[in-house]
């Protein structure tokens, strides 16, 4: 009897769990299709490279015979290259090979096309023919680029995203100074996101506090003003800041009229304009989580601190502020992560030296169709964000435990 009852209870619990899973299954499927799968595919593209091997199968397979990497390979590899050049020229895929090699070796496009045009129908010594067509084929760097593009797996894009590369022998080295830009761009991205987050916190904390302590009849109209940016197009809001911040804009005209400045300030197409415009766009994302936490803080704690002799400033700093930390943590984290991926606002309001990593991802995706590089930059940004998120949660969690 007891065993039968336990069995029925287990079955009932199992049916309840299956029912609960059935309710959330559509949401899990939606998240998998729209979130997990695209991110996994992005990370796959950062290390998967079959573009060259698809059009030059012979030479990419023959590269395994290249033993002395301080010099050009043997005749076998040159013969394979000649065959692939002829076939890809007939199939009109020569541009694909040239584009892929040009990612790694400057001038590869002219090298490939000039060699293909000068290639005879047959030859007994393809090494001499190809080197005569273009002496650059003697450079081990050219063959190292072909080897790195042979696929199917490659570290080229990820290394380039970190301003690194491999020499013909396979050892890591720093990329040339004129090509080392991505770590600087990544640092700029985090710097702008951090500045915007700090500005949103400084401006949003008083607003959230005011909304939390005001009576509802006064707080609701103010809340509508906070929500107003959500009802306006991002492009419209950014364009409005271009009008406001330009040399003849309202901000400079007002400062000139008041006598604060003698000549217009440069507030647009620089870092100042980017931070101002992004702060305006992202401010509600900090105010709303902070307000929801502040609204749940009972006034009795402050009254108790005051009744025990604490000054209002001390009571606010030591009693009220610690209780707002969950809202501060949620708001700043949300704002920071959103700021990392911003593209339109820096593109319209910032200058050439203010573009964030999203600009380069969009460039490689739409302009040069270099999916590997775009995926590598996205993967580096994702990993860096996850690392900072982990550190941030540990710091905030430790602070909350101490306050608790």
From TrEMBL:
Compartments, record wording: Cell membrane
Keywords assigned by UniProt, alphabetized: Cell membrane, Membrane, Transmembrane, Transmembrane helix, Transport
InterPro entries: MetI-like, MetI-like_sf
Record membrane topology: Multi-pass membrane protein
The UniProt record lists the keyword Hydrolase: no
Residue spans crossing the bilayer: 20-40, 190-212, 224-245, 265-288, 327-349, 369-392
GO cellular component annotations of the record: plasma membrane
UniProt family annotation: Belongs to the binding-protein-dependent transport system permease family. CysTW subfamily.
Protein name: Binding-protein-dependent transport systems inner membrane component
Source species taxonomy: Bacteria, Pseudomonadati, Pseudomonadota, Alphaproteobacteria, Rhodospirillales
């Amino acid at each position: 009897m007891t065993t039968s009852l336990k069995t029925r209870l287990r079955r009932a619990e199992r049916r309840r769990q299956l029912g609960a899973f059935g309710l959330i299954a559509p949401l899990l499927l939606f998240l998998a299709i729209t979130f997990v799968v695209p991110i996994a595919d992005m990370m796959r593209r950062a290390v998967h490279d079959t573009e060259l091997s698809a059009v030059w199968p012979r030479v990419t397979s023959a590269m395994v015979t290249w033993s002395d990497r301080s010099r050009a390979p043997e005749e076998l590899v040159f013969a394979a290259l000649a065959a692939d050049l002829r076939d890809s020229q007939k199939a009109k895929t020569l541009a694909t090979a040239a584009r892929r090699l040009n990612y790694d070796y400057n001038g590869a496009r002219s090298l490939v096309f000039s060699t293909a045009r000068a290639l005879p129908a047959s030859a007994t010594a393809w090494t001499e023919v190809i080197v005569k067509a273009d002496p650059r084929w003697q450079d081990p760097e050219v063959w190292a680029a072909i080897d790195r593009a042979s696929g199917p797996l490659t570290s080229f894009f990820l290394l380039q995203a970190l301003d690194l590369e491999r020499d013909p022998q396979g050892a890591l080295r720093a990329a040339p100074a004129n090509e080392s830009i991505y770590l600087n761009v990544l640092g700029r991205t985090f710097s702008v996101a951090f500045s915007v987050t700090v500005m949103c916190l400084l401006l949003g904390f008083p607003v959230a506090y005011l909304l939390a302590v005001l009576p509802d009849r006064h707080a609701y109209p103010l809340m509508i003003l906070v929500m107003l940016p959500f009802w306006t197009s991002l492009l419209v809001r950014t364009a409005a800041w271009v009008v406001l911040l330009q040399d003849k804009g309202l901000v400079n005209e007002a400062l000139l009229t008041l006598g604060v400045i003698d000549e217009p300030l440069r507030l647009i197409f620089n870092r100042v304009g980017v931070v101002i415009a992004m702060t305006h766009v992202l401010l509600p994302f900090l105010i709303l989580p902070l307000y929801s936490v502040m609204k749940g803080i009972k006034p009795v704690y402050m009254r108790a601190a005051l009744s025990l002799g604490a000054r209002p400033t001390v009571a606010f700093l030591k009693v009220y502020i610690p209780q707002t930390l969950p809202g501060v943590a949620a708001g700043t984290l949300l704002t920071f992560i959103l700021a990392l991926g911003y593209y339109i606002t820096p593109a319209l309001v910032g200058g050439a030296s203010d573009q964030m990593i999203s600009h380069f991802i969009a460039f490689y995706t739409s302009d040069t169709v270099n999916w590997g590089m775009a995926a590598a930059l996205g993967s580096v940004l994702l990993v860096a964000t996850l690392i900072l998120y982990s550190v941030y949660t540990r710091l905030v969690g430790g602070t909350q435990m101490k306050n608790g």
